[in-house]
């Protein structure tokens, strides 16, 4: 079943990379001391490409993912998303871009505890102003696509870890993003669930022609990427 | 912007529904506060209407003066013309008969009753709630029998109203044309208005008891004798702006009337004229207003406590919900959406509380109305009910409290770091 058609109206061209990261830096000041977490990150991600970001703990993987997801602002460098320099964008535009163009899959799922699977998948569409009936139909379609058609009305605590991550995946796909950012998506799952999640993530991304950037420690996950970007002390190799 | 607002409202409703325990906890203070506010507005409204109505029923419309002239009035028509000339709009006799007449049907004599001789124009001065029948007309003054309007208690005591007789020393047939509701009672439980007419002149003003009929027998000692003083009493309606209305003791009015006393009273000294206001609605308005403000203050304090409760719960939950709110931001919620969602959650909680409070107030008022109806003789028009204004005030205050209580947690939610929230 095709569930992730690209959103119309995006100025996509085959030649331009979806992500264009150049000299990206991020430092924090803690008790007056400056800590450089990202020193120089430069790489591109094409549309539909699957990229794994690997590196040791503290190498800046999650910080980089936060910058790519427009959850944080870089200290220097530039980050182009879909041809737009995001470092110059205001908060409102960044929120809209995040909602329309980026889907997140978190290690800890981050589902809303008191909502059903159906409602959780519908949240990005609520934020996007999708009418109720269309929202419900789309959420149902996505949950069926990830094999949870029978758990529509279950709440997160009634689902296994693998099922929760599939709900999170369906949620990430709900607005047909051009980029899916996955932060250790299998980190909290057993081997069988990990494999299933990765299968579905890559399958749905392929159907929707979405690029995937996955941060992982797991070599098995990295193996399945088209390309691996390694971070060492805040620098891409 | 519109999309952000709509999304915020949708998330707020969903959040309130999902967090029932939090919603109920936040509600309690608001329910009590709004309930108190609605009840205060209701009580104040009832008090005002009750005061105005009882004043109009038992005293007169604003501004009514009771004018008493001691001494012999030789020309009543001239006196009544002068009462109008010095500023009165309506004049009616309001005379306690010098010889206290009684009523009976057959052998059933009613002795514990009050009678006042009046004119048809009393209906323009005093509020008269008729339970049945009608008020006097000018045509009734031509009646050969005395014409009366009695209150319900007296009507019940009399029984058959078609066979009523009136008398002091001798009984004569009388005609009852209307029955006033008990809320219109005068100074005693059983009261009657006797129309001034040629047929009743002697009953009202004394003089020859010329009417034929059997003697009144079986009277208790002292009954059958009214006010021995030669005093004429009138009710006079003035414009509220008239100086006589502004002066509670009618000094100016008395002086003006006294200067022409020679026209109608051969033996009326200036100090023999007294006048005073009998309508008391205006006098009651001020204490009622102070009482309302006092109660309103108590309700406001209660509501303020409710506000602090919602604010407290809001602040605690924003801290507890950092991860949830960060997730919303990660999924594309703008700052406006998040602000609206948090504020609207507080508003939704408060309005739900307001609705519960209004519902409770309606139930309590209904119960109160049953008690009032049972124990207070009030006209139908002064029913106890929750006025529309009280509902609006209640719901409006609830929404305002929600808004105020939601702003600080919402501002705090915006200040929180999304990245830190997702790491929680």
Describe the structure.
The complex is a heterodimer of chains A (237) and B (424). By secondary structure, chain A is an alpha/beta fold. Chain A has a single domain, classed as Rossmann fold, CATH 3.40.50.300. Chain A has 7 helices and 10 strands. Chain A has a 6-stranded mixed β-sheet with strand order 6-7-8-3-9-10, with helices on both faces. In chain A, a hairpin with a 2-residue loop joins strand 1 (19-30) and strand 2 (33-45). Residues 1-13 of chain A have low confidence and may be disordered. Chain B is α+β, with helices and mostly antiparallel strands and 424 residues long. Chain B folds into 2 domains: 2-56 and 283-423, no CATH class; 60-280, no CATH class. Chain B contains 12 helices and 13 strands. Chain B has helices at 2-18, 20-58, 76-85, 152-158, 201-205, 243-246, 251-258, 281-320, 322-330, 335-375, 388-415, 418-423, and strands at 64-70, 90-95, 102-105, 108-110, 114-118, 130-133, 147-151, 164-167, 171-173, 175-180, 191-195, 231-237, 273-277. In chain B, helix 8 runs antiparallel to helix 10 (335-375) and helix 8 packs parallel to helix 11. The radius of gyration of chain B is 33 Å and the shape is elongated. The A-B interface holds A 66, 69, 71-72, 91-92, 95-96, 98-100, 104, 106, 110, 112-115, 119, 123-124, 126-129, 171, 175 and B 3, 6-7, 10-11, 14, 18-19, 323-324, 327-337, 418-419, 422.
């Amino acid at each position: 079943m095709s569930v992730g058609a690209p959103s119309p109206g995006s100025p996509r061209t085959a030649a331009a990379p979806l992500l264009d990261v150049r000299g990206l830096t991020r430092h924090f000041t803690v008790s007056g001391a400056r800590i450089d977490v990202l020193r120089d990150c430069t790489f591109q991600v094409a549309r539909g490409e699957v990229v794994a970001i690997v590196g040791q703990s503290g190498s800046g993987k999650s910080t980089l993912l936060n910058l790519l997801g427009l959850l944080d602002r870089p200290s220097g460098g530039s980050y182009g998303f879909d041809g737009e320099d995001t470092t110059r964008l205001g908060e409102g535009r960044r929120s809209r871009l995040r909602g329309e163009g980026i889907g997140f899959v978190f290690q800890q799922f981050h589902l809303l505890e008191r909502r059903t699977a159906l409602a959780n998948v519908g949240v990005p569409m609520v934020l996007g102003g999708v009418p109720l009936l269309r929202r419900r139909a789309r959420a149902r379609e996505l949950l069926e696509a990830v094999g949870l058609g029978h758990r529509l009305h279950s709440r997160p605590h009634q689902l296994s870890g693998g099922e929760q991550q599939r709900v999170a995946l369906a949620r990430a796909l709900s607005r047909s993003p051009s980029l899916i950012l996955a932060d250790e998506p299998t980190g909290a799952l057993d081997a069988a669930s990990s494999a299933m999640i990765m299968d579905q993530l890559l399958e749905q991304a392929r159907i929707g022609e979405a690029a995937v950037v996955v941060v992982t420690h797991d070599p098995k996950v990295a193996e399945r990427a088209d390309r691996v970007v390694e971070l060492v002390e805040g620098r891409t190799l | 912007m519109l999309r952000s607002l709509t999304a915020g409202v949708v998330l707020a409703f969903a959040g309130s529904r999902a967090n029932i325990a939090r919603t109920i906890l936040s509600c309690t203070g608001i329910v009590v506060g709004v309930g108190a506010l609605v009840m205060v507005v209701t009580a104040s409204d009832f008090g005002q209407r009750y005061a105005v109505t009882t004043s109009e029923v038992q005293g007169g419309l604003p501004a009514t003066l009771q004018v008493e002239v001691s001494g012999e009035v030789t020309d009543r028509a001239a006196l009544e013309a002068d009462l109008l000339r010095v500023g009165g709009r309506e004049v009616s006799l309001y005379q306690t008969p010098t010889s206290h007449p009684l009523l009976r049907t057959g052998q059933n004599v009613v002795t514990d009753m009050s009678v006042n001789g009046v004119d048809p124009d009393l209906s323009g001065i005093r509020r008269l709630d008729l339970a049945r029948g009608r008020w006097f007309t000018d045509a009734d003054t031509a009646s050969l029998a005395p014409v009366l309007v009695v209150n319900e208690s007296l009507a019940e005591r009399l029984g058959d109203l078609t066979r009523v007789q009136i008398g002091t020393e001798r009984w004569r047939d009388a005609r009852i044309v209307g029955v006033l509701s008990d809320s219109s009672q005068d100074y005693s439980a059983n009261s009657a208005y006797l129309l001034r007419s040629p047929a009743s002149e002697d009953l009202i003003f004394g003089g020859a008891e010329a009417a034929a009929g059997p003697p009144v027998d079986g009277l208790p000692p002292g009954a059958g004798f009214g006010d021995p003083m030669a005093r004429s009493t009138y009710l006079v309606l003035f414009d509220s702006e008239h100086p006589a209305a502004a002066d509670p003791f009618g000094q100016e009015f008395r002086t003006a009337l006294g200067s022409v006393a020679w026209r109608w009273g051969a033996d009326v000294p200036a100090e023999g004229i007294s006048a005073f206001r009998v309508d008391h609605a205006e006098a009651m308005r001020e204490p009622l207003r102070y009482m309302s403000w006092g109660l309103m203050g108590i309700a406001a304090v209660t509501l303020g406590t409710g506000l602090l409760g919602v604010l407290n719960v809001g602040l605690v939950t924003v801290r507890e919900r950092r991860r949830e709110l960060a997730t919303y931001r990660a999924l594309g919620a703008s700052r406006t959406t998040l602000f609206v969602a948090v504020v609207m959650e507080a508003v939704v909680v408060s309005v739900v509380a307001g609705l519960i409070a209004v519902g409770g107030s309606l139930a309590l008022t209904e119960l109160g109305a049953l008690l009032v109806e049972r124990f207070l003789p009030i006209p139908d028009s002064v029913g106890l009910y929750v006025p529309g204004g009280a509902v609006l005030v209640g719901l409006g205050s609830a929404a305002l409290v929600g808004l105020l209580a939601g702003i600080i947690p919402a501002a705090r939610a915006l200040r929180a770091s999304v990245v830190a929230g997702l790491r929680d």
